[in-house]
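**User:** Here is a favour to ask of a fellow structure person. Please take any protein you like and set down a full record of it. No explanation is needed for now; the record alone will do.

**Assistant:**
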Amino acid sequence: MPTTLKLVEKVEPELDLESLNRRLADAPPEAILEWARETFGNRLVLTSSFGAESAVMLHLASRVIPSAPVIFLDTGYLFPETYQFAEELKARLNLDLRVYAPKMTAARQEALYGRLWEGDDRDLALYQQMNKVEPMDRALEELGAKAWVAGLRGKQTSFRAGLRPIELQGSVYKVHPIIGWDEEQVHRYLRVNDLPYHPLYRRGYRSIGDVHSTVPVAEGEDARAGRRLGSHNECGIHLPRQADSSLKSSGL
């Protein structure tokens, strides 16, 4: 009888995050991106909100991992200027932009659940699950991502202050090339490379998300004070995933 060959999927060893982060702790962003490119190859993706200073991370990535897909979550509630900014940077940096939207339209959400962003933390969690977390998880699955590059910085929130250059979120590695950068380093990079800020930056918007939950901040005020994101001050996609049966009622 002929022998039947059984294909066995290659199991990739887990990374030693402790030693890896010690090695990359003081590495420049380019070196971290080069490591990610060599480690994950075409299973590496990038996310961008096309926010106030997003051109920094996108420009860095375009130089080191130019073929990596850029995931852009379109909640349906973004500023017109954000859509325009995304198109501007897509053309300028030759980005492979992949736009992901919620399964449920904004109009239907409001009809069934009301204005969730005006509610308590539980309402906000449902809003973020439908508009950000589910589309993000779908993007990672469809693109076969093993690792995800994000332009988070430790000084932005208390949660981000505890992040290292490389983390594991669920089954996907997170790569944070500029986690150690401060505001001055960000502004200097934009100046040196002649990169644009988001069009709303000059009007006082320092952290830019959805229209209904983003406001300008005063000079010297914490940039995240302009975002209404609940007690954790995060948009949801960067937090550890937590199963919550109440979210299943959304049909997602």
Remarks:
- The chain has one domain: 17-239.
- The longest strand covers residues 69-73.
- The CA atoms of residues 29 and 133 lie 26 Å apart.
- Residues 17-239 form a domain with the Rossmann fold fold (CATH 3.40.50.620).
